[in-house]
């Protein structure tokens, strides 16, 4: 249990620093911003206490808000994501899976994991950009920013997911 907390703290710090120091400065075509810290929420297992998940998400969002100068936007969006993550995970996890089931491409199939991560990242980006704009006056910009940021974030999540588990197939010569 203690090793799990240490791993989460290390991931918390790494994702926060990566977002604050590198990824916040990337704005592809003025629309797409990678939000890799959402991957932190996707990693929580099925039996994780909801209060702890919300606390982790709010803390991460508050730190990202501090780095990004977006007062309350990331913390509100990430807390919402932490509230809905267990319910989204239940949609994709097999019933016979163990209680400490941790979602990944290798524990779920590629299709299920893609739908799981796509739905959560899209929900996050839609809420984040809606709160940031605080109006739907320029709804096309909001929609393009949400979809482009979702796509860019999913590409980065896919890259990290391939490095996370050591069960990749080796090249046979």
Overview of this structure, please?
This protein has helices at 2-21, 38-42, 50-68, 73-92, 110-133, 139-164. It contains 6 helices and no strands. The protein is mainly α.
Task: Sum this structure up briefly.
With 173 residues, the protein is mostly helical. 66% of the residues lie in helices and 0% in strands.
- The mean pLDDT is 85
Helical content (DSSP H or I, runs of 4+)? 55-70%
Strand content: under 5%
Taken from the alpha-carbon principal axes, the silhouette is globular
Characterize the largest beta sheet: strand count, sense, and whether it forms a barrel: none
Following the backbone from N to C, one meets helices and strands in this order, namely: HHHHHH
Helix segment count?
6
Terminal-residue CA separation: 41 Å
Q: Low-confidence parts, pLDDT < 50 over ≥5 residues?
A: 167-173
> What structural class should be given to the helix and strand makeup?
mainly alpha
Rg for CA atoms: 16 Å
Count of DSSP strands: 0
From the structure above, extract its key features.
mainly alpha, single chain, 173 residues, globular
Give the SSE map.
Blueprint lengths: L1 H20 L16 H5 L7 H19 L4 H20 L17 H24 L5 H26 L9
């Amino acid at each position: 249990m203690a090793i799990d907390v240490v791993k989460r703290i290390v991931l918390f710090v790494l994702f926060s620093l990566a977002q604050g120091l590198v990824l916040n400065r990337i704005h592809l075509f003025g629309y797409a911003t990678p939000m890799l810290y959402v991957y932190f929420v996707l990693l929580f297992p099925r039996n994780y206490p909801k209060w702890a998940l919300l606390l982790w998400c709010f803390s991460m969002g508050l730190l990202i808000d501090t780095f990004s100068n977006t007062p309350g936007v990331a913390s509100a969006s990430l807390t919402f994501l932490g509230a809905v993550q267990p319910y989204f995970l239940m949609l994709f996890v097999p019933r016979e899976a163990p209680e400490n089931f941790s979602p990944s491409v290798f524990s779920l199939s590629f299709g299920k994991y893609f739908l799981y991560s796509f739905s959560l990242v899209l929900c996050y980006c839609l809420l984040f950009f809606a709160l940031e704009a605080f109006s739907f006056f320029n709804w096309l910009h909001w929609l393009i920013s949400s979809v482009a940021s979702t796509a860019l974030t999913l590409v980065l999540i896919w890259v990290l997911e391939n490095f996370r588990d050591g069960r990749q197939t080796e090249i046979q010569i």
